[in-house]
Amino acid sequence: MNLAEGVQIVSFGILAVMMLGSAFGVVLLGNVVYSAFLLAGVFISMSGLYLLLNADFVAAAQILIYVGAVNVLILFAIMLVNKRQDFVMVPRIWIRQVATALVCVGIFALLGTMVVTTPWAIVTTMPVGDASIVKIGLHFFSDFLLPFELASMLLLMALIGAVVLARREFLPEATLEPGDADALTLPERPRELLTTGRSDSTIQ
Amino acid sequence: MFKEDTVPAKADPLLFLLGPVIVVLPVFLSYLIVPFGQNIVMTDVGTGVFLWIALSSVVPIGLLMSGYASNNKYSLLGGLRAAAQSISYELPLALSVLAIVMMSNSLSTIDIVQQQSGYGILGWNIWRQPVGFLIFWIAALAECERIPFDLPEAEEELVAGYQTEYSGMKFALFYIGSYVNLVLSALMFAILYLGGWEFPVSVSAIAGAIGVSETTPWLQVLTATLGIVTTLLKAYFLLFLAVLMRWTVPRVRIDQLLDLGWKFLLPISLVNLLLTAGLKLAFPVAFGG
């Protein structure tokens, strides 16, 4: 892709403003559904930036994975969970807040030092363009094999965890006493762990 | 009255407007990669069919958005069903496309058609992917929400799903998007499995037999015309099949739909992918080594 420099600068500016604006919207807006939709805007602007860098495969993958899968799942989670409950003060909430602040500052410091210390050299060779898919594939199966496999293990763990969580049985709310359950947990029917050999539905 | 563009009083006006737009835009954008001939294509991007799959994955966001913004329980249910349906059928669709890509060694639609050319009707991918094309067609029908899978707007259960509160041009946008998407799926099926612009009998072989050079101007014009007509005829045949199905097959239930997608089509398409890889290693001549 060959764009004039002016076009590149203008599109970079538009994309950056779009991305920062929607990112602020994600954090600052009160309605969580708006935040989720704006997150899609952030991801799409990021894929626009990848396009500007001649990485069209990465741009398409960004849209497919982050907008098409991750963001839709976030929206699903928001729209399916509409359990209205009163705001309950969790005891010692400040530990959680302090921990969150620490993690955020830590990540910011880490990324900041990474940006500052990396020697950003301008690459003089031609961008590979369409051949980038082949290069990415070669890297995945040679020097980036371990991160690639680790990521797939992580996804497998998440998959199995989701199946385990989905097979829980919750007690109906009507039968519960008001002070019965802790805040932030759902009452759950206790179950035996080794019931894989028989069908539960026929016995109960 | 039916053409008035009304917005419900308790709806979210901005998201209500954006929903149909997001549903329609990616569909039209996907026409970038549909080729009607060797050079009759808007752009030959290297990512090709992957771009189509990536763009079609944006559509559920628009459906969820319009379902949520309508502020109506049927709309919300319809939007959630539509998004669940398109997520679960995207995987078999992508996996069956991946088997084709593996045989053609390229994501570009032009290369995929080139790889099927030369032997007329015998070289088409439909003979090499007998399971893949069925999976692709079922998944494409489900992605377009055509009748055996039109759960999101099942009118007996959900009024009209996510479209319930829409009227006027916004309502029309959903239908434009749906039918344009159906034509797009038919065109992609023709390109991936039916040899794209290739005539059932190889034109260049006939030209060689009667002694006309490939560079003759009138032959090139004829080939290009034939290419466009052939692609459209193939697509229309598939559209005919889709409309025929609409009057033949009853609607499935939502649990049957999800079972079919996750427990049947997904494993079968994985096996199909594995078989294609094995056949490619074993018979590189026939399966594009």
Give me some keywords for this one.
A: 204 residues, mainly alpha, Four Helix Bundle (Hemerythrin (Met), subunit A), 7 helices, B: 289 residues, 12 helices
How many domain units of chain B? Answer: 1
Terminal CA distance of chain B reads 60 Å
Indicate the overall shape of chain A.
extended
What is the makeup of the main sheet of chain A?
none
How much of the polypeptide of chain A forms β-strand, as a percent range?
under 5%
Tell me the total number of β-strands of chain A: 0
Oligomer status: heterodimer
Percent in helix of chain B? 55-70%
- What is CATH's topology name of chain A? Four Helix Bundle (Hemerythrin (Met), subunit A)
Low-confidence stretches of chain B: none
Mean pLDDT over the residues of chain A: 80
Percent of residues of chain A in helical segments? 55-70%
Contiguous uncertain segments of 5+ residues of chain A: 198-204
CATH architectural category of chain A:
Up-down Bundle
Q: Helical stretch count of chain B?
A: 12
Which secondary-structure class do the elements of chain A indicate? mainly alpha
Mean pLDDT of chain B: 83
Distance between the termini of chain A: 64 Å
* Percentage of residues in DSSP E strands of chain B: under 5%
Topology, element by element:
The complex is a heterodimer of chains A (204) and B (289).
Chain A: H1 5-28, H2 32-52, H3 56-80, H4 93-117, H5 132-140, H6 145-166, H7 200-203
Chain B: H1 13-29, H2 48-56, H3 59-69, H4 73-104, H5 109-116, H6 125-128, H7 130-143, H8 155-158, H9 168-193, H10 203-209, H11 217-246, H12 254-282
What does the model show?
The complex is a heterodimer of chains A (204) and B (289). Chain A has helices at residues 5-28, 32-52, 56-80, 93-117, 132-140, 145-166, 200-203. Chain A is mainly alpha-helical. Chain A has one domain (3-83, 91-173): Up-down Bundle (Four Helix Bundle (Hemerythrin (Met), subunit A)). In chain A, helix 1 (5-28) packs antiparallel against helix 2 and helix 2 (32-52) runs antiparallel to helix 3. The longest helix of chain A is centred in the middle third of the chain and has 25 residues, at 56-80. Residues 198-204 of chain A have low confidence and may be disordered. Chain B is mainly α. Chain B has one domain (13-282). Chain B is built from twelve helices and no strands. Chain B has helices at residues 13-29, 48-56, 59-69, 73-104, 109-116, 125-128, 130-143, 155-158, 168-193, 203-209, 217-246, 254-282. Chain B is globular, with a radius of gyration of 21 Å. The termini of chain B are far apart. The mean pLDDT of chain B is 83. The chains are: A mainly alpha (204), B mainly alpha (289).
